[in-house]
Design a protein that fits this description.
Length: 150
């Protein structure tokens, strides 16, 4: 039984850098480990076994005041770890969004360069066309002048 998440390791370089930076902090590693375990089926099975043994071995009598307190504390901590997990997911999304923004900015700069090059090519094409028309006109004028003189 594995407590590893079902998704593979991060493939995106920006996300890999973010996860590496996050892993440098001991508190983040602890929170990530607890969150990974608390979000697994192993945690569900451990909880079921814990409650079954508590009730089955009659650790305390009904209405299970101590068990209720333990479950309440567990719920408080688990909700905190859910929020930590959501914050971590938000950080990942922000890293990816920032990286995407950099890519968009780079692409916009490239597009501006391409438009400028296209405009330069258009101007050169117009100039070549104008020269070609001028040369063609001169060639026809010489050809007609030579024919009328003969």
């Amino acid at each position: 039984m594995s407590i590893r998440p079902s998704v593979g390791p991060a493939q995106h370089p920006a996300l890999q850098r973010h996860l590496t930076q996050r892993a440098e902090n001991v508190q983040n590693r602890i929170a990530d480990t607890i969150t990974r375990f608390a979000g697994s089926m192993a945690f569900v099975y451990v909880s079921i076994i814990w409650f079954a043994l508590w009730i089955g071995l009659r650790v305390e009598k009904y209405p299970y005041g101590l068990l209720t307190m333990i479950v309440s504390l567990e719920a408080i901590f688990l909700s905190t770890f859910v929020m930590i997990s959501q914050n971590r997911a938000d950080e990942k999304r922000q890293v990816l969004a920032d990286n995407q923004w950099k890519i968009v900015q780079f692409e916009e700069a490239q597009n501006a360069q391409l438009i400028e090059l296209s405009n330069q090519i258009l101007e050169l094409t117009k100039a070549i066309h104008a020269v070609a028309i001028t040369l063609q006109g001169q060639g026809q004028g010489q050809g007609q002048g030579g024919q009328s003189g003969s």
